[in-house]
């Protein structure tokens, strides 16, 4: 049975290729067609007596395959239209993998021609005014729907272009949903909401795919509507909720002549002259960490950011290293003082073995200890594992383990500790 299905799929694929060639020949004479006109042209080509015969039961599918190959992302469009898929991974012509419900699965379709994968990469990057070629073999971009795209081209990828697409939900996930999924406890969510309203600067850490951006989006709902928020990202991904005075800034790579680059560092400096109440840096990866810390220490309380780290302690060390990437002449003691005075709270997320995403720890930064030269912290909430259920899901809860020491911002905001 599988062989029969495979034969039918291969036959249909061959027919689609022939029809697409005919379409491309016609489009050479009229490239400025609307989507409706493209579909009409597809119908004309499919019903042409000299065209390959397409079974009536397959015609609708072939019609959309042709349209997607011309105007959208070919076979990947089917995956992009599926809201249950969170990640799409194209390994050249070797296969396509998807992430659904936290699990990575092999998809039955794949690209037969590496040139087609290259065409898709070029289509994506052209929409973001970026370039992908041998000299710019690694490129980050985003799709019109907000999906984040990373592409690696030959010769860096010898087996063909590699495409990784991270999808985000159409509607931003709210804190109530995270509570329902047991990603965070109601007590901890209420606590962080109160601190966000009181303009505590919060840094969110975690590994790849741990849900840092999703959590930042949910936490942003606590920011008062009358505040001016400026978001700074390499590629716009954040979905800040309920913000009326929102400015979104996006970095830009240099063109082929090496001109026009606008870095995250440039954007952070520019944002300071734009009268922000809060600055949200989507993710710090390098020297921009220095500029972010300087912003936090120059009156921009309540700012938010994320970073990759295996634990809060590891994240603090990485912040030091990233500042040194901007300037190796800054003493480590000065860097640690900047971190200790700029960041109030750290939230660490993790993707645990049952593939669920959870807040594992919330800690407060107490300050800089001069004798030891270390940043002092203490844990406020910690996830305690309590076993597994019959389906292998991890059981546990985020427990309160400490009390907030620095309450000055709460008092200035008129929030009592009892409200947290």
Short description:
The chain is an alpha/beta fold.
Walk me through the structure:
This protein is α/β, with parallel strands linked by helices and 420 residues long. Helix content is 35%, strand content 24%. It has 3 domains: 70 residues; 96 residues, 2-Layer Sandwich (Beta-Lactamase), CATH 3.30.450; 245 residues, Rossmann fold, CATH 3.40.50. It has a 9-stranded mixed sheet, with helices on both faces. The chain has a 6-stranded antiparallel sheet with strand order 3-2-1-6-5-4. β14 and β15 form a beta hairpin. α10 packs across α12.
In the residues, how many domains can be counted?
A: 3
Helix segment tally: 13
CATH topology heading of the largest domain: Rossmann fold
Mean pLDDT value: 86
User: Residue ranges: pLDDT <50 for 5 or more in a row?
Assistant: 1-11
CATH C-level label of the largest domain: Alpha Beta
- Approximate shape: elongated
The Cα radius of gyration reads 25 Å
How far the N terminus sits from the C terminus, by CA atoms, comes to 61 Å
Strand fraction: 15-25%
Helix and strand content put the structural class at alpha/beta
Write down the secondary-structure element order: HHHHEEEHEEEHHEHEEHEHEHHEEEEH
Quaternary status: single chain
The percent of residues in helical segments reads 25-40%
CATH superfamily of the largest domain: P-loop containing nucleotide triphosphate hydrolases
Please provide the count of β strands.
Answer: 15
Sheet with the most strands: spatial strand order = 9-8-10-11-7-12-13-14-15
CATH architecture of the largest domain: 3-Layer(aba) Sandwich
């Amino acid at each position: 049975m599988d062989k029969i299905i495979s034969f039918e799929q291969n036959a249909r694929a061959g027919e689609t290729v022939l029809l697409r060639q005919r379409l491309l020949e016609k489009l050479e004479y009229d490239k400025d067609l609307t989507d409706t006109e493209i579909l009409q042209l597809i119908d004309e080509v499919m019903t042409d007596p000299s065209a390959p015969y397409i079974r009536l039961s397959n015609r609708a599918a072939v019609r959309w395959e042709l349209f997607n190959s011309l105007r959208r992302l070919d076979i990947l469009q089917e995956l992009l239209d599926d809201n249950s898929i969170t990640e799409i991974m194209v390994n050249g012509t070797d296969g396509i993998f998807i992430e659904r419900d936290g699990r990575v699965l092999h998809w039955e379709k794949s690209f037969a021609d590496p040139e087609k994968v290259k065409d898709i990469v070029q289509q994506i990057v052209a929409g973001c005014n970026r370039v992908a070629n041998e000299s710019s073999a690694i490129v980050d971009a985003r799709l019109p729907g907000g999906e984040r795209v990373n592409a690696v081209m030959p010769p860096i990828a010898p087996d063909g272009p590699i495409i990784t697409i991270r999808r985000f939900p159409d509607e931003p996930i709210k804190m109530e949903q995270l509570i329902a999924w047991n990603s965070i406890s109601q007590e901890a969510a209420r606590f962080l909401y109160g601190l966000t309203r009181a303009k505590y600067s919060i840094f969110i850490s975690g590994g790849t795919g741990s849900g840092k951006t999703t959590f930042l989006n949910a936490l942003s709902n606590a920011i008062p509507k009358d505040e001016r928020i400026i978001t700074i990202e390499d590629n716009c991904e954040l979905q800040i909720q309920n913000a009326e005075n929102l400015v979104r800034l996006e970095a830009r790579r240099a063109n082929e002549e090496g001109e026009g680059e606008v870095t995250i560092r440039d954007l952070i400096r520019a944002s300071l002259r734009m009268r922000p109440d809060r600055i949200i840096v989507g993710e710090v990866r390098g020297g921009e960490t220095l500029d972010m810390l300087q912003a936090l220490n120059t009156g921009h309380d309540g700012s938010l950011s994320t970073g990759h780290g295996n634990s809060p302690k590891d994240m603090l060390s990485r912040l030091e290293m990233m500042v040194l990437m901007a300037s190796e002449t800054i003493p480590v003691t000065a860097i640690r003082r900047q971190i200790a005075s700029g960041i109030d709270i750290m939230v660490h997320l993790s993707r645990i073995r049952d593939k669920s995403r959870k807040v594992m720890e919330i800690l407060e930064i107490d300050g800089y200890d001069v004798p030891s030269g270390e940043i002092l912290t203490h844990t406020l909430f910690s996830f305690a594992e309590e076993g597994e259920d019959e389906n292998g899901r991890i059981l546990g809860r985020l427990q309160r383990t400490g009390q907030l020491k620095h309450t000055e911002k709460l008092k200035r905001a008129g929030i009592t500790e009892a409200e947290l």
